[in-house]
Amino acid sequence: MKKISFLAIAILLAAIFSSTTNAAVPNHFVPKYSYTQDDVDVSYISVWNGLKNGYEFGVFDFNGDPADPTQSIVLLEGGNFIDGASFIVENNVLKVESGTNAGKELNLGSSPDFSFFIKDSNDNYYVDLNISFLGADMYSFSYGDSGYVEGYDLQAVPIPASFLLLSSAGGLVLIARRNKF
Fold first, then answer.
1. 107 and 83 in one domain?
2. Integer Cα distance of 44 and 110 in angstroms
3. pLDDT, tens digit, 9 for 90 and up, residues 151-170
4. Were both Cys, which of 2, 52, 71, 143 would link to 126 (CB 3.0–4.6 Å)?
5. How buried is residue 83: exposed, middle or buried, by Cβ count under 10 Å (0-12/13-18/19+)?
6. What pLDDT, on a 0 to 100 scale, did the predictor assign at position 81?
7. pLDDT above 70: percentage of residues in the chain
8. Do 72 and 48 reside in the same domain of the chain?
9. Which residue range forms the structural domain that includes residue 15?
């Protein structure tokens, strides 16, 4: 019984700690501000290890059914010295304001959530990006040796702490049942 109670405390502390830090940023975002205040900007400069030639960086509907990065908008193309784009989300429609695909729109469905992808020259889409929180409302995105893209005015949507706590409780029940037999 003591083994279970120590495990329960450890799991609950881990759940609480992980819900209050930015150690693992999910690829699930909304604009930091409403569209009337600001837009989301993404950019790179090649001298700072920007997006490499042959790669593309884009946005897709996080809540798609299923979430499909091929139904998306390319925001940046690699290999330029400097590249940037901006978009707003208004009434759950993502509208590209500047960049190569200015004027294009992406319907985000019932919520304003979106995700980013990197596509290589072989048309492989990657959504499990390396995402670093840079402070305030800024993030860095990369995949493998693709180079880095920075995004501004973004708000990560974390896994709710209640979900972590419930999943921890579910794990405890399974451990307790297994130890009973």
1. yes
2. 31
3. 999 999 876 554 444 444 44
4. 143
5. buried
6. 94
7. 72
8. yes
9. 1-24+158-181
